[in-house]
């Protein structure tokens, strides 16, 4: 295990990363398995080594909304390191077979006591999450729903990037195994809007629709359209 596995730890001191990872416990999850439920006491952070995990919440209307999809090199549950025992704010489920490195808050607290500079690692993790959420908030406030759908689709496709069969890292061939309802939750819009955007993109040749999944055919063209560059 090395920090090279976890892009969000880039820039951190190698010795601090090595110390953090040495306290991690390997966890494996089957497809569809729940890692933790919203409301469960928070006790650990998960660094994702393989697989993809959906972060979901229940709405006041009884629906389930997908907030994010986390893939290799990313993390979830990091607030447990700041507020141990507080209730989890979301449910996390494995979208496929996956593996994480689980760092318990007790081990992290001991590490912080022995090496106070380790706090910089936690600050880096939280800063990365704030940047991501800030970008999504700006999108939600200022971008049309159709643009948000395209951007969130690209975000999730990036998490499934090792499905890229083009061999050039372009994203072409990546398959997103989310339903239109789940994509609607990510984009903060309705399923009808997602359906309309996806069918339009299929007509443009940027993607192919299948039952419960979407395959990216031309990621570059989809990205241009997500930036508002049509034609």
TrEMBL record:
Organism, as annotated: Conexibacter arvalis
Residues in HTH crp-type domain copies: 143-220
Pfam families hit by this protein: cNMP_binding, HTH_Crp_2
Gene3D superfamilies for the chain: Jelly Rolls, Winged helix-like DNA-binding domain superfamily/Winged helix DNA-binding domain
Protein name as it appears in the record: CRP-like cAMP-binding protein
Gene Ontology molecular function: any one: DNA binding
GO cellular component term of the entry, any: cytosol
Entry keyword set: DNA-binding, Transcription, Transcription regulation
């Amino acid at each position: 295990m090395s920090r090279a596995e976890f892009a969000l730890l880039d820039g951190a001191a190698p010795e601090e990363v090595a110390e953090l990872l040495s306290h991690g416990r390997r966890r494996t999850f089957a497809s569809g398995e729940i890692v933790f439920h919203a409301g469960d006491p928070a006790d650990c952070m998960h660094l994702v080594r393989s697989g993809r995990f959906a972060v979901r919440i229940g709405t006041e209307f009884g629906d389930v909304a997908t907030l994010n999809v986390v893939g290799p090199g990313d993390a979830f549950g990091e607030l447990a390191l700041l507020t141990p025992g507080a209730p989890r704010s979301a449910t996390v489920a494995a979208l496929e077979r996956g593996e994480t490195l689980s760092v318990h808050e007790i081990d992290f607290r001991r590490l912080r006591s022995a090496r106070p500079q380790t706090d910089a690692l936690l600050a880096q993790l939280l800063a990365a999450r704030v940047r991501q959420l800030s970008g999504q908030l700006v999108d939600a406030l200022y971008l049309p729903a159709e643009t948000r759908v395209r951007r969130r689709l690209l975000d999730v496709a990036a998490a499934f990037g090792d499905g890229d069969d083009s061999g050039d890292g372009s994203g072409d061939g990546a398959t997103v195994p989310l339903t239109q309802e789940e994509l609607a939750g990510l984009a903060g819009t309705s399923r009808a809007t997602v359906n309309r955007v996806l069918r339009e993109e299929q007509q443009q040749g940027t993607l192919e629709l299948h039952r419960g999944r979407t395959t990216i055919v031309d990621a570059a063209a989809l990205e241009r359209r997500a930036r508002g560059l049509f034609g």
